[in-house]
Write a structure and sequence with these properties.
Two copies of one chain form a homodimer.
Chain A lengths: L13 H20 L3 H17 L1 H17 L4 H7 L3 H16 L7 E6 L5 E8 L2 E6 L4 H12 L3 E5 L5 H17 L7 E3 L5 H7 L8 E5 L2 H10 L12 E5 L5 H13 L8 E7 L3 H14 L3 E4 L1 H9 L5 E2 L13 E7 L2 H11 L4 E5 L3 H10 L4 E6 L16 E3 L7 E3 L5 E12 L3
Helix pairs in contact in A: 1-8, 2-5, 2-7, 3-7, 5-6, 10-11
Chain lengths: 433, 433
C-alpha cells in the first residue's frame, strides 16, 4: 500500500523524528510513573467529558480520513471501521470512565519477607516505562490504549493506521489536553508525528527509548514485527481455539457451550475453530451439534470418523484437508475431529493449538484437572465457552489485547500486564558476608 | 576464537541438528510439565549422589578440556574457571539438594474470583516449556541450570562454552541418567550436540522449539544475541549500581554499607560502581569513606566537588571522565559524584544506571519512600548493601541469573522466573452474551 500523506517529495529524517518523540515520552514516563492515582483518574474523566463535548472536532478530522479512504477506493467494511460515529465516541468516553474506576496497580507492594540477614525483601508493582502501540484502522484504539497506559503509569507512543492519521492526531490532542489539565505531562501520550511506515521501522528498533511494543493487527503485521522488532513485545499471534467434548460430558451443556463458542460471533480470536469429540459420545453428540451448525450455516470440515457420523445423520459436511487443523477461520467454518482419549485430545491441542484458549466439557473430575494442568494455553477452561476469554469477562475491567506469548503476560492483558514487579529491599545497615 | 573441535572437515547440518535436539526437548517438556514434585526431587537427589560417586569420570572428562585449553594457551584465570575441583563438584551436588528442598512452583493456583457470568477465573503457575541456556566456561552452570529447570518443570537445552564441551557432555549424561532413574524423560535435559558456534545461531532462531533464551555471559554475547535472537530472552546486561548517601543518612551506617557495597568483592555485577553523596554531608562523609577506599586500594574517579573535598583531606583521587558515569568497572575503581538533592540523585541514576540495583542510605522517611518508588531498577534498596541483590539473599533458594530487563522477571531470577501464569476458568455451561 503506498502512503497517502508523504506527497511533499522531501523525505523526513525518521530516525531523528523517533529520537525526539522517544525522548519526550521517556521524560514524561518518569513523571507519570510517580503520578498520584487521583491525578490520573482526573485526566481520564476530563478526557471522557472532552470527547463528548468535542464530538464535532473529532468527526471533522474523521471526515478528512474518510474522504481519503473513499477516494482511494477502500472496501466499505474498512471505511466502516474507520468511522467515528456518535456511538463509537460515546464508547470511548465510557471506556475512559471505566478505567478511571479501576484500582491503580502502581505501587502495590506484596510478598515482603524478612531474610536471615535482617533485610526485608518484597516486590513493588511499577510501570514498564514507554509503551509503543502499533495498530490498524480503528481509531477507538487510540483512546483505549491511551487510557490504559495512563492508568498504569506508562507513557505511550501511538502509531495508528496511516488511514486514520487525522482522526488519531485530533484524538491525541484531546488526550494531551486532558493530561495537562490534571497537572500531568502531555508528552506521556505521543502520537506518531508522521503516518509514514518508515517511522514504525525506527520505533521498533528504538531500544532505550521504548520498553515494550504491543502490536494490534493482522498476522502480517505480527510476522513482520517478529522478524524486525528489537524490543520486547506483548503480542497476539493466532487464535486456534479448541473445545473438547469428553466422554463424560453433559451433552446438553456441551451442545449449548459449543454452539456459543462457535456461533455467538465468528470473527473474534477466541471463537472455537476446532471441535474435538470423544469417540464414546460421537454418535450421541455430533448429529445434535451438527444440526445446529447446519441450521446456522456453519461449514463443517471433518476427519473420517466424524464425517461418517454426520453423513449417516444426513447432515452436510466435508472432509478436512490437513491444513484445516492449523487454520484460524474467523468465519462460519469449524473443523471437527474424533479422539479416542483425553490424552489424544491434549496431544491434538499441543500439536495444532496456538496457546490461546482451549476448553474441555466434562463431568469427570480427573479429566478436568488433567486438562487444566496439561494444556499449555493462555486460558484453559472447564465447562464454558472459549468466547469468555476476555479482559472484561475475567474482571480485568479492560484489556489492551490477548497475549499468546508465554513470558510476562498470558491471555487477556489488562492494567497488570502493563506493569512489572521490582524488588524492594529495606535494611538497617546490612552488608554481604 | 577458532573452534577447537570441528576439525573433521565435514560441516554438520546445524539446522537439522537443532530441529532434532529441539523436537526431543519439546516432547520431554510436555512430560516434565506434568511430572510430580516427588519424582523431580528424586531426580535431583539422585543427581547429587551420582556426582559425588562419579567424581572421577567428571574429572577425567574435565582433564581433556583442561589439556586443550592449556595447549591453546588460554589464560590461567580462564583455566581456573574451567577446572572442576572436588570442592566445585561438591558445590554442584549441594546445589541440587538445595533445589530439591525448595517448594515446587508448578501448579500453584492463585487469584480465583467468581465473575458476574458465573465462571470462576484464576491463575495457575506453569513451566515456560523449553529453555535455552547459553553460557561460557564454568561447567557448574550445567548442573545449576539443569537442576533449576527440572524443578520448575521445564526442559532445557544447555549450550556451554566450547572449551568445556567434554566436561559438560559428561555432566549432562549424569543428569539424564538421574532423570531416567526417577521415571522422568532424559531428553528434558539436552546438551548441545556440537561445540560449534553455528549451533547457537540455529538455537536462537528456533522459534516454536525454544520458548526462552537465557544467556549467561559477557556483554559481547548479550549484545550479539540482542541483535540476532528471535526468541524472547531473560538477560542481564550491565550492572552499573549506585549507592546514594542522603543528607539525612546515618554516616556510620553509610560508611559500613558503602564499604561493603564496593569492596566486599569487586567483580560481581551487584557491586556498587558509583557513589552519590548529598552536598550537605560531603565534607563529613567523603574523607571517611575515601580513607577506607585508599587503604583498600580502590581508585576514586570524582566530579569536581568530591575531588576538592578528597584533595583537602589529603586523599589521592582523580577526575572522572564523562564515560566513567556509564562504566561497569568490576574492579577496585569507584566513580564519585556530589548531588544537591534527592531529585538530582534519582535523575542521575535514571540517566546513568542500568536498571540493576540501586540503594539509598537515609533516615528520612519521605526520601526513602520516594527513592523506593521512583528509582526504576530490578532491586531498589534502603539502608543496605547493593551486594545483597542475589537470589539466595532474597530467599529464592537459587538463581538462574539477574535480569535487567523490565518485562517478565526483574532482578534475581529463581524458580518463579522460569514459570508463568496462565488463566484457568471453570464454569457450569456459561457462554458469552
Amino acid at each position: 500500500m503506498t502512503d497517502m500523506h508523504n506527497t511533499t517529495g522531501a523525505t523526513p529524517d525518521y530516525h531523528r523524528l523517533m529520537l525526539e518523540t522517544g525522548a519526550r515520552a521517556r521524560d514524561a514516563a518518569r513523571e507519570l510513573a510517580r503520578a498520584g492515582t487521583a491525578a490520573k483518574n482526573e485526566a481520564l474523566r476530563t478526557l471522557a467529558q472532552s470527547l463528548r463535548e468535542g464530538r464535532e472536532a473529532v468527526q471533522r478530522a474523521n471526515a478528512l480520513d474518510l474522504d481519503r479512504a473513499r477516494a482511494a477506493q477502500y472496501k466499505e467494511s474498512f471505511v466502516d471501521r474507520l468511522t467515528v460515529t456518535d456511538a463509537v465516541l460515546e464508547g470511548m468516553a465510557q471506556g475512559c470512565e471505566q478505567i478511571a474506576s479501576l484500582a491503580d496497580p502502581v505501587g502495590e507492594i506484596s510478598d515482603v519477607h524478612v531474610q536471615p540477614s535482617g533485610i526485608a525483601v518484597g516486590r513493588m508493582r511499577v510501570p514498564l516505562g514507554v509503551v509503543g502501540i502499533i495498530y490498524e484502522s480503528r481509531p477507538n484504539v487510540t483512546i483505549d490504549a491511551a487510557a490504559l497506559t495512563i492508568k498504569s503509569g506508562n507513557a505511550v507512543i501511538l502509531r495508528g493506521g496511516s488511514e486514520a492519521f487525522e482522526t488519531n492526531r485530533v484524538l491525541g490532542e484531546f488526550v494531551r489536553r486532558a493530561l495537562a489539565s490534571a497537572g500531568l505531562p502531555a508528552d506521556a501520550v505521543m502520537t506518531a508525528p508522521t503516518p509514514d511506515r518508515a517511522f514504525v521501522s525506527e520505533m521498533i528498533r528504538a531500544r532505550g527509548l521504548v520498553d515494550v511494543i504491543i502490536p494490534r493487527g493482522g498476522k502480517g503485521l505480527i510476522a513482520r514485527l517478529r522478524e524486525e522488532c528489537r524490543i520486547e513485545m506483548i503480542h497476539h499471534l493466532d487464535g486456534i481455539c479448541h473445545t473438547y467434548v469428553d466422554a463424560a460430558a453433559d451433552l446438553d451443556m456441551a451442545l449449548s457451550v459449543v454452539d456459543n463458542a462457535k456461533t455467538q460471533r465468528f470473527s473474534p480470536c477466541n471463537a472455537t475453530e476446532t471441535l474435538l469429540v470423544h469417540q464414546a459420545v460421537l454418535e450421541a453428540f455430533l448429529p445434535r451439534i451438527g444440526a445446529v451448525f447446519a441450521q446456522k450455516g456453519v461449514e463443517m470440515r471433518c476427519d473420517a470418523a466424524s464425517l461418517a457420523v454426520l453423513s449417516r445423520a444426513g447432515i452436510n459436511a466435508c472432509a478436512a484437508a490437513p491444513e484445516d487443523w492449523d487454520t484460524e477461520y474467523n468465519a462460519p467454518i469449524i473443523s471437527i475431529a474424533a479422539v479416542d482419549s483425553l490424552d489424544a485430545a491434549i496431544d491434538f491441542i499441543a500439536r495444532h493449538g496456538s496457546h490461546h484458549t482451549d476448553a474441555i466439557i466434562t463431568n469427570d473430575y480427573t479429566a478436568a484437572q488433567r486438562f487444566l494442568r496439561e494444556v499449555d494455553s493462555g486460558s484453559v477452561m472447564i465447562n464454558c465457552s472459549t468466547r469468555l476469554a476476555d479482559g472484561y469477562e475475567y474482571g480485568l475491567g479492560a484489556e489492551i489485547g490477548i497475549s499468546t506469548g508465554k513470558l510476562h503476560a498470558r491471555g487477556p492483558v489488562g492494567l497488570e500486564g502493563l506493569t512489572s514487579l521490582k524488588y524492594i529491599v529495606t535494611g538497617h545497615g546490612e552488608g554481604r558476608h
